Fold this sequence. Notes:
Blueprint: H1 13-85, H2 90-118, H3 122-152, H4 161-233, H5 239-299, H6 304-318, H7 326-334, H8 350-375, H9 379-450
Helix pairs in contact: 1-2, 1-3, 1-4, 1-5, 1-9, 2-3, 3-4, 4-5, 5-6, 5-9, 7-8, 8-9
Organism: Nonomuraea longispora
Keywords: Membrane, Transmembrane, Transmembrane helix
Protein name: Secreted protein
Amino acid sequence: MTLVRTRPGTSSPVERGVPGRIRVISGITVASLALLFVALAAGSSTARDGLQVIGRDAGPQVVATAGLYLALSDMDAQVANVLVMGDGYPREREAATTRYEQQRSVANQALLKAFELSGDNPAERLTVQSVLDGLGRYERLAGQALLLDERSGHAPGPPPEEVVRSYRDATDLMRQVLLPQAYNLTLENGTIVRGTYDEKAFTVPLLRDAVVVAGVVAIGCLLWLQIFLARRFRRVFGPALIAATLATALALVSGVAVLGQDMQALRSAKSDGFDSVLTLAKARAISNSMQGDQSRYLLDEERADTYEHTYLDKSMSVVYFEAGNLDAYHRKVTTGSTDFLGLLGPELGGRQGKAALAAYRDFQATDVEFRRLALGGQTNEAVAERLGPVTTAFTAYDEALLKLAETHQGVFKRAIDAGEGALNTLWLLLPFAIGAIGLLVIAGVRPRLKEYR
């Protein structure tokens, strides 16, 4: 290239114009690259925040608070079991008392986690405090019923009236106050996860689109710079700028892929993991309360019909079949129909889901025999059935639900780990990509500017 020289101390219009245009185009290119990396940082930071809230903070804590309902309902069920045993089942009575203490500890731990999750929300903190106060009152009432029962020394079956009256006060407090409050706590805390997911499901795709736009603009600016330099200096494209363009394209493709993977991880963790785990936790809690209703059915003859209806309502909430009474429900459960809804409806597909449904049918079949004995006045046999085959069938059913929940918990953990792993890789490589592309742009532009010095 031939340069036009002027007298010392002056520069030609070409000398002034070409370096200026190179600097302007280079500045625009650098700005577009900065915009790309800012979009990548914002998108990955938003996705990481969603994964942290759902996978590490609020999500696990919400599932823990769902265990509060199970612990409270099991406490009341164990008290009912002890009262109906009388003096005929010393080992079973000791086991039920031990389980009561264990579930009380679980409930206290769940309340602590619920308090942590409530943050600065005064309504949720008030609910937690109310449950704590109510739990203390329940323990006093239940302890009074257990003490009166122990003093009475009655045979297996309904205890004396004073014991029943004392237990009524305790179970009414549990079923009408504490359990609804515990359920509301889970619902309220679940809104944190749902709100976070909805927010990230909206913003992460937008930021991914911003990355695409910024990346296309950056690549276009790099190509513009290369074409300008090639035409102005009548040379082939510079290898440094070609490498910078390829590196930018790689950063764009990798960033878009990671954000897409993170969005899929959030979706899988929420829909296939968290939602199912929470649903199964609720189903286990309600099912446990159903089992308690069986003991209460034997314990309180005056309220037997009420406890039979509540058992039916809870059964239909877990696995719904259209039925007007418990006998009709039992028939539909045992016919093998798959036309059902309820909490477990979406969860009963696949091998483990079918195993859980089969275990549920076995449990309901033992309930038929249990009620037949109770209605026939065979109280001792009904108590034996309740503490034997019914408990065995329920334990198998509960374990099937637990295995199903563990499967979904595995899906949840794998999704969170995969999303965080992809982000960690991106954040590890991003600084090197920024530095390498910046050096390549400088290496491609600086030699051309030096020709004008």
